[in-house]
Amino acid sequence: MRVAVVGATGFQGGAVARLLAARGHRVRTLSRRPEGDRPPLPGVACASGDLGRAEDVRALFEGATHAAVTMPLVYDAERVARYARNVAAAARAAGVRRIVYNANTRVPARPTRTAAFETRRAAEEALRGSGVPLVVVRPPVYLDNLFSPWNGPALVDDGVLAYPLPAHTPTAWLSHEDLAEAVCAALTADGVEGRVLDVGGALTLTGDDLAAAFARGLGRSVRYVPLDPAVFEERLAGVLGAGAAAGVAGLYHHMASGADPDLMAGDAGAAARLLGVRPGPVEDWVARRPWQIWAGEATGAGR
C-alpha cells in the first residue's frame, strides 16, 4: 500500500505510521513542526505542510492508495472541520481505496457540548461525505497516558495509580501498539467498510481492576486513586497549552458527570474479531515499560 498517514508526528498516528513502514508499506505524512523537532519515524517520508492548507493535503495524498487519519489535539470546531474537508477532498481526488479514521475517543450516541466528542463526530461526517470507503475506529482510553510525568513518579515511588476516571467506570484500556494493529488491519479487512468499530483492550477494567493488572506487571502493590479532572486539566495545560488541555480534559469531565458511564467499556471482543487482532493483557504492557525512569520524582499527584 501507499498510505497517507494524517497525524503521524503524534503518538497515535506515529504508532500507525511506524507499524505500516515496518511491514513494508510506503508511508507519507506532513507536519508543521520543523524537521529537527519531529519524532523519529523510520521509513516514513515527512513533508512540511499544514492540514489547513488544501494544497498541502492534496500533495500528501497524491499517489496514495489508502489513508489513516488521526486529527491533532485541536478542538476548535472550525479548524477541525476545515482539516477534515481538506482530507476528504484530497482522498477523493487521489482515488484512495479506503480511509481509516481514528476518532481519538469513543463518541456518545447523542450530541453533547463536549468539543472532544463533537469535533471528532463532525470530522467523521465530513470524511464519510467524501464518498471514499470509510472505516471508523473509536478507541477508549490509552494505557500510554499512564506512562507519563504526572503518573509515573507516584506509581513507582508510592504505588499510586492516579487518573481522572471514576474508580467504578468500566474501561477497555488500549495501548498505542494495539491501536496501530487495529488501524492497519482496518485498512484491508473484509466486511468492515462503512462500519464504526469501538476498539478496545482484551478486558473491561474498573480502576481497582486496572491497579491489580499494574500490580501484576510491576510485582508490587498498586492502588487506584481517581484524580479530579480539573486538577488533571491544570497539569496538562503545562504540557499541551490551555486550549488543547481543555479539549482533552472535556472527555474526563463528561465521564465524571456520570452521564454515559459505559462509554469507554469493551464490546466483548467484537471489533477485534472483525479485524483479526488480539489486544494484549494490560500486565504485559506494564511489564515492558521502563518505569524506573520516574523513580524519586513524585510530585504528590495521587496523594
UniProtKB/TrEMBL annotation:
It comes from the Bacteria. InterPro entries: NAD(P)-bd_dom_sf, NmrA-like, NmrA-like_oxidored. It holds the Pfam family NmrA. Residues 2-234 form the NmrA-like domain. This is NmrA family transcriptional regulator. Keywords: NADP. PANTHER family: NITROGEN METABOLITE REPRESSION PROTEIN NMRA FAMILY MEMBER, NMRA LIKE REDOX SENSOR 1-RELATED. SUPFAM superfamilies: NAD(P)-binding Rossmann-fold domains. Belongs to the NmrA-type oxidoreductase family.
